[in-house]
Design goal:
With 285 residues, this protein is α/β, with parallel strands linked by helices. The protein has a single domain, classed as Vaccinia Virus protein VP39 (Rossmann fold, 3-Layer(aba) Sandwich). The chain is built from twelve helices and seven strands. α2 packs across α3 and α2 packs across α4. The longest helix has 24 residues. It starts with 9 loop residues before the first helix and ends in a 9-residue tail after the last strand. The model has no long low-confidence stretch (mean pLDDT 90).
């Protein structure tokens, strides 16, 4: 039997935050992202779909970071028409529907079994989409994903909910699997943001305990230390995204002030991009 939202664990229920944020943006007169499918998905969840109440700041941040990741994926697919896309901790993300990649692209949405079961019920499955019901900290989530094509892996905040040791394991498994190499695009959290995650009202509303501490860092090179195969390419701040020009003037002023100091800017929407090289296939494994 397919689980309902109410039957998911608090960690699994965090998918409601980004879904609700995208839906709230889509309902606006002039949306930043315009993800109308998110509204439909939220409605399909029934009354429980309306239990997460977001501040305007979180609504805006969700739309902006989604748009930033969409652009990175679209650019990668343009450069690599035979790409594989992996959505790490996909939840009820609808990125594939927004981007509408060509038929030459295979898309893998990875999340825990109950989340994937719910996802199958509320999101139409497109051609060349492949749900993967598995834990990212398990040993077999990559088994059925082709390794000989360029890949872009997307992590919209999910890595912040794992420990440092878990992140090391996930990243090394990812980069070791793909002989053609690829990229990693993620929403990261600064250390102070990660420490405060358990105190955020929106996360507590889905059952995250006040004592919860996420995984965060202040230097993009920290991920290179977790996995030396990763090479830092760039960091992008939400305050510098094209969509920022459409925010209210008080928010724009505050955002512009933040971007004068990277340490401050990293407390907002912070998107990182890494590259990892092709490797020789193991013929004796």
């Amino acid at each position: 039997m397919t689980p309902t939202i109410d039957e998911l664990t608090p960690l699994e229920k965090t998918l409601m935050v980004t879904l609700a944020g995208r839906a709230a943006d889509a309902r606006k007169k002039n949306p930043l992202l315009g993800d109308e499918l998110a509204v439909e998905v939220l409605n399909r969840l029934g009354p429980s779909g309306g239990t997460v109440k977001l501040s305007e700041t979180i609504e805006i941040a969700t739309a902006v970071r989604s748009k930033m990741l969409d652009r990175l994926v679209t650019t990668f697919i343009t450069d690599h028409p035979d790409a594989v896309v992996i959505e790490l901790g996909c939840g009820l993300e609808t990125r594939m529907h927004r981007i509408a990649p060509p038929d030459s692209v295979d898309w893998y949405d990875v999340d825990l079994p109950d989340v994937i079961a719910l996802r199958r019920q509320v999101i139409p499955e497109l051609d060349r989409s492949h749900p993967v019901a598995a834990s990212l900290t398990g040993k077999h989530w990559l088994d059925n994903i082709p390794s000989d094509r360029p890949v872009i892996a997307v992590a919209d905040g999910v890595l912040g909910f794992f420990t440092e040791a878990d992140n090391r394991q996930i990243l090394r498994a990812l980069t070791a699997h793909f002989t053609a190499g690829g990229e990693l695009a993620l929403v990261a959290y600064s250390r102070i943001t990660a420490r405060l995650m358990g105190s955020l009202g929106v996360l507590r509303s889905v059952g995250i305990d006040r004592s919860f501490r996420g995984y965060g860092f202040d230097d993009p090179r920290d991920l290179e230390r977790l996995d030396p195969s990763l090479a830092f390419v760039e960091e992008q701040f939400g305050a510098q995204a094209p969509e920022a020009s459409r925010l209210s003037w008080p928010v724009r002023i505050l955002a512009k002030w933040f971007t004068r100091w990277k340490a401050q800017a990293r407390r907002g929407v912070w998107v990182l991009r890494y590259r990892f090289p092709p490797r020789r296939a193991c013929t004796n494994c």
